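just leaving the lab so this will be short. below you get a single protein, a line of residues and a line of whole numbers that encode the local backbone shape. id like you to explain what the token line says about the fold, in plain words if possible. thanks a lot i owe you, the record is right below:

…
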Amino acid sequence: QPQGAPPGHDRRISFEQFIEGWRAFNYVFVVVYPYEREAQVLSLLGDWADDNWATQHALDMAENESRILTGIDQYFAWFNKGTNYISFANPDYSNAALAYDYAFGLYAKLTGDDSIRPYRMMWYQTGPYKAYFFSGRYADVINLATTTLEDTISKPNLEESLYWRAQAEYMAGNTQAAVADYRAALAIHPGWETAIQALQDLGVQP
């Protein structure tokens, strides 16, 4: 909806505004349908029903937009490139990491106005953590997670940022810090199997 408009239904926005908002979500869409009509839906979707084709299409779109857009829209395009690289069945973590690098470089040049600067991105998306981690860039995972936990939110209560920082800390040889972060993630998200398993793999009780 237009910036500053009150929430509500039956709102009208321009197609350009819709695309601008959708770009921030990498043009993801969800198809909801009755199970018994799955075959019909898959037929209607055509190529879109193929994960690899859809991911390549999204990457091609992001590649094109990264060349022609500017400002925050270009930032989202580069971020989407990184996300699409890691979304293939065989993720390309190296190119994803480079795309995220460029996106964060653009981010640093954006205005400090919180209504424009998308500082919450890492609250909901873990793509950069995965790209850096699986590229062996553990220091970058730790630095990004620390920035996210300390500079973008009032309390460090983002369990996925804590988890990925712990993963990188362990790989960097700091097991004590990793255990502390895994436990901090569990304090936020009790019973989270991913963090529990990580601690058990280290021979530590949650």
The mean pLDDT is 93. Residues 51-68 form the longest helix (18 residues). The CA atoms of residues 177 and 188 lie 17 Å apart.
